[in-house]
Amino acid sequence: MKLKYLGTAAAEAVPALFCECEVCERARELGGRNVRTRSQALLDGRLLIDFPADTYLHVLREGLRLHEINSCIVTHCHSDHIYPGDLWCLISYAGRRREKRAFHLYGTGAVLEMVRAQCEDIEQIIREGGLCLHEIRPFEPFEVEGYRVTALKADHGAPESVVYAVEGPGGKAMLYAHDTGLLQEESMEYLRGSGLRFGLVSYDCTNGLLEHGERNHMGINGDVRFRELLEKAGVLAEGCVHVANHFSHNGGGAGYDEMVPAAGERGFLTSYDGMEVEF
Predict the structure, then answer these.
(1) 144 phi-psi bin (left φ>0, alpha ψ -120 to 50, beta other)
(2) Is the pTM of this model over 0.85?
């Protein structure tokens, strides 16, 4: 399995639009991996995770061939993870595909309610077969693009927020854990009984180097604690890759260059836009 990080920032991105903090100014000056767009990832070139406002930028910059992708799973209803306005481009005269097929969007009731409210002409798009909405529920696995996907309840402020455990062929699996604090007992209990062994865990690191960070979002110290809980639960495969992701400019002064050594000494990779990890 291969995960490509298309965007690796929290809601404001880095640099943030109106911000003059040290992290944002340094990102403007240095560019490169210090610049982060809103969170999105692609698994094995076919399963999209989240649909932020920066999706179009990812099409241009990362070579995301969205017209060839049929399925997207959405973590929660905050606008940096689902931007319904751009789904309007699925209407027949805006998205003229050579082969008629639907774009399948999977999310909780709160996500689908937001899509229905904010996507212009959505009923026409659905009637034309351009979009198919699938409501998912925590702890009820579903099949998509050859994967078995299970939503787990996240510890986050948006209604019905989830993180995803994704199982692929050959027993490989990953845990994609954004936006969340430490998973609460109901989700950890599910994992302990799941038989899953994760070859990759992607951790929320919105709080960066800040000492607090085990509820709603995490920082690198919260990620260490979360890894310990996963180890204790027996769900980490040998050689599991641990990736800190979803960064804010408000993370204790840490841009990419500052985060790399801090995460590295704790056994984590630091994500950047365009990074690919095979596991």
Answers:
(1) beta
(2) yes
